Amino acid sequence: MLEPRDGIPPVIADEDALAEMIAAYARGAGPVAVDAERASGYRYGQRAYLVQLRREGAGTALIDPVACPDLSGLGEAIGDTEWVLHAATQDLPCLREIGMVPSRIFDTELAGRLAGFPRVGLGAMVEGVLGFVLEKGHSAVDWSTRPLPEPWLRYAALDVELLVDLRDALEKELDRQGKLEWAREEFDAIASAPPAPPRKDPWRRTSGMHKVRRRRQMAVVRELWTARDKVAQRRDVSPGKVLSDGAIVEAALGLPPNVHALAGLSGFGHRMGRRQLEQWQAAVDRAKALPDSELPQPGQTVSGPPPPRSWADRDPAAAARLSAARAAVSALAEQLNMPQENLITPDTVRRVCWEPPAEITEASVSEALAAHGARRWQIAQVTPALVAALA
Fold first, then answer.
1. Please, what is the end-to-end C-alpha distance for the chain in angstroms?
2. pLDDT, tens digit, 9 for 90 and up, residues 176-195
3. pTM (2 d.p.)
């Protein structure tokens, strides 16, 4: 399949066309296929630059959320309808920003995982389940480009063309495997999850951070990361286009005394102007001038158990529990034909093994799993295996 069956619809970029489209979708029938395109790697943040929908009786719609930034009217018109998305957790945050919040979803990627499909990308799923080949050449383009080229719009329209058909086929397969209720629990959990809180100390996720050991060097990473983020936000470009993570780590390890020394480091080469170099050197100098009391502490304060590699020394009994639990979960996941992380999250297993209930019973282990956010179906499947492992 190389062409949408109704052709490529015009991009909706004004309020009149949007109102007409909302009315058509309110009259439509059945689930709504929904997708969004971002400009990751090109623009600052994760905002949507194109929203695609398809519904029986209303056809395919392509909306420009830059020209129509408030889609809450559309969100309300289809809010009670089931939304079909592929990898919903990737698109829901940017859809929420423009007023689109579903009450019910069907995630075709997650359905594929639960059903045991080895490849769960949209193209692979459509080809494997429905027998159609999707064009997948434009997933990583700059979707903030205006006007959007016709081949990109064709690709975007095809992303929702068969999503409802795929949903229907996967629903039948999950039902056949006895996993449909499990999938519905997962979908409900995604739809009802609150927005993720802002990440604490996001600078600690700088690529290559593991090389940075000393607190003064960590302060350099923090100052450069913060300066870069401000520039990227002001210019609306991806932070990596302003200054690479590798350059930040190089400056932290080198602690350059001046602009000349900074210019000699990898990532601060001859293409960078004097003014930019001075801006980054100022960030390095700020970090070097900080009193010891204001330097960042090594490592992040995390709740929960320590890294498993240290368990054998710190608590050999806990290490033995974890080894047995991992083996039990792995065997059960293989038996149920699904990835281990979808059966139960590794973090949940670690937490229950590090601090198990005082008395190991099915009731106490079930309660512990529920306290860590496990779903009912997960608890029912995993509890007997974990009770044996913990005992």
1. 55
2. 999 999 999 999 999 999 99
3. 0.93
